[in-house]
Design brief:
Layout (H helix, E strand, L loop, with lengths): L1 E5 L15 H7 L3 H12 L8 E5 L6 H18 L3 E4 L4 E4 L3 H13 L10
Parallel strand pairs: 1-4
Antiparallel strand pairs: 1-2, 3-4
Helix pairs in contact: 2-4
């Protein structure tokens, strides 16, 4: 299963309500599929705005199980938290209005990936 990530700058909403908590960020990072999605968004080059990259977020899961989890759990969870904006019609994922809140944590984890358990991301 491939989805498209649109490479855009980190959006920042100065009018956002309360910031997400660390627990909410850890919940978003709690599954490999969500970690792969957020990692891909962090690695997306903002200078290539408008360029599209197709990426596989399913890992080693069986295709049908991965697809069900992706569409019914992982993408809605990240979209609801506003870490991503997900357009199911175009199958496009972009950085959401709160991505700037989780992006630094994901960057920190990427920087220390050699010290993390083998299932990162």
């Amino acid at each position: 299963m491939e989805l498209t990530i649109e490479m855009t700058n980190y959006p920042h909403s100065p009018h956002a309500a309360a910031r997400t908590t660390l627990d909410e960020q850890f919940e978003a990072l709690g599954r490999p599929t969500r970690r792969r999605i957020l990692t891909a968004l962090v690695r997306a080059n903002p200078g290539d705005e408008g360029e599209l990259a197709s990426l596989d977020f399913t890992g080693d899961e069986r295709p049908n199980d991965a697809l069900m989890g992706l569409y019914h759990t992982h993408l809605p969870k990240l979209d609801e938290a506003e870490f991503i904006d997900w357009d199911p019609d175009s199958e496009t994922i972009t950085r959401g209005s709160r991505f700037h809140e989780i992006g630094p944590l994901v960057e920190l984890l990427i920087a220390h990936r050699d010290e993390l358990p083998s299932d990162w991301p």
